[in-house]
């Protein structure tokens, strides 16, 4: 094959520096160690401070560095391994024993347009929405909204009136349906304002979005949209030992 136009474009200088810095983080620094200031780093690598800042920002987005006001730039701990494949098991509904998610809130109203299409309901049709969170090592790493149409769960008893109680009721009612399987997709996205608030990130920060469709009787019974912190999480979909990260 001939050389493509893209292959002739030189790699940006900040990206070359990012690669060098990443190797230095692996060989010369420890988790939590404070990096030298920008002036010292720029002098060491022979680059302009603007180029250095771009490289540091990229490494921060990748979760390799953490910047804290009053402390400086420190080496971040390794990403938290999150087992997506066995959150509630591949053959059951969300909320089953062993599920790592915690139901917090309940709401009723129209689903986002893309979710409504997947559920097969009208754009203005009210659906149940269950907000759940996931914590690993004391840190909230993901938030999820589970959308359930009224065809799957016709009504939700008020119970004690709390949102968490109604959310748990929706999950229990789902378990009355015959489970027909699930499928998942993963994509890189940007944190919306509400997700950013829950995950302690800035709006627009990179996140991993896992969309799961739950099936019953040949149709879609529920859809969940889970948002994971891309800077601290690495997702595993294996029921066995996860494959180690081979490159960064």
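Q: What amino acid sequence fits the structure above?
A:
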């Amino acid at each position: 094959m001939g050389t493509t136009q893209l292959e002739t474009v030189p790699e940006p200088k900040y990206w070359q520096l990012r690669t060098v810095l990443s190797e230095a983080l692996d060989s010369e620094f420890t988790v939590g160690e404070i990096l030298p200031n920008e002036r010292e780093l720029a002098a060491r690598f022979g680059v302009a401070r603007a180029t250095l800042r771009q490289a540091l920002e990229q490494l921060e987005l990748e979760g390799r560095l953490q910047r804290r006001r009053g402390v400086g730039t420190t080496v971040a701990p390794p990403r938290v391994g999150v087992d997506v494949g066995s959150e509630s098991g591949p053959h059951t509904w969300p909320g089953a024993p062993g599920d790592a998610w915690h139901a917090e809130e309940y709401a009723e109203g129209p689903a986002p347009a893309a979710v409504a299409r997947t559920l097969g309901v009208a754009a203005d049709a009210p659906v149940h929405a269950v907000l759940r969170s996931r914590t690993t090592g004391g840190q909230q790493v993901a938030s999820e909204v589970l959308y359930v149409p009224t065809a799957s769960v016709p009504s939700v008893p008020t119970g004690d009136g709390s949102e968490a109680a109604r959310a748990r009721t929706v999950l229990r009612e789902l378990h009355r349906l015959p489970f027909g399987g699930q499928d998942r997709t993963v994509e890189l996205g940007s944190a919306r304002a509400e997700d950013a608030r829950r995950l302690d990130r800035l709006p627009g920060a990179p996140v991993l979005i896992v969309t799961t469709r739950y099936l019953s009787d040949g149709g879609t019974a529920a859809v969940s949209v889970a948002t994971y912190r891309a800077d601290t999480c690495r997702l595993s979909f294996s029921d066995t030992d996860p494959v180690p990260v081979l490159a960064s």
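Q: And what stands out in the fold?
A: The chain has two domains: 6-75, 80-236.
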